[in-house]
Amino acid sequence: MSKLVFILLAIIGGMFGGSQAPINGELGKRIGSFEAAWFSFFIGTLFLTLVTLFLGKGHLLKLFSVPKWNLLGGFSGALLVTCIIIAVPKLGVALTIFAAIIGQITISMIIDHFGLFGIERIPFNWNRFIGLSLMIIALFLIYRDRIIT
């Protein structure tokens, strides 16, 4: 499969993440931030249980033999969803998502640079620095009235 298919898949996933933010943010205002995060993961767990039952490859028991740090993804996801639920009502959807993307890009570049978590090492360079800097400048320029107030 070409890389374009995976780029499109990532864009679609990002679109779901972008739509999840206002939905969960509104739910958080109505029932509480932590309660909304819990419910989001509960529904996600139900959905993925069905997907795993019908489309899974049957390797779930290998879960007990993986390195323990491999199990932190769910914790990271829960923190991401909770932080976004708390931020959306205060910042708006676009500012929250754009800021989250900058956070994701920043940690991704650190992971790439050091080759953490078994990922191929991709050194930090001036192009990456300039790209990240431009994103931070864009965040400020586009949303400076929301940041200052």
User: Radius of gyration from the CA trace?
Assistant: 18 Å
The end-to-end span amounts to: 47 Å
Mean pLDDT: 90
Helix content: over 70%
Q: Determine the structural class based on helices, strands and strand pairing.
A: mainly alpha
Reading the helices and strands in chain order gives HHHHH
Percent strand: under 5%
- Count of strand segments: 0
Describe the structure.
- This protein is mainly alpha-helical and 149 residues long.
- It has one domain (3-148).
- It contains five helices and no strands.
- It has helices spanning 3-31, 33-55, 73-91, 93-114, 126-148.
- The longest helix has 29 residues, at 3-31.
- The termini are far apart.
Describe the SSE topology.
Blueprint: H1 3-31, H2 33-55, H3 73-91, H4 93-114, H5 126-148
Helix pairs in contact: 1-2, 1-3, 1-4, 2-3, 3-4, 4-5
Please describe the structure with a list of short key phrases separated by commas or semicolons.
149 residues; globular
Outline of this structure?
With 149 residues, this protein is an all-alpha fold. The chain has one domain (3-148). The protein contains 5 helices and no strands.
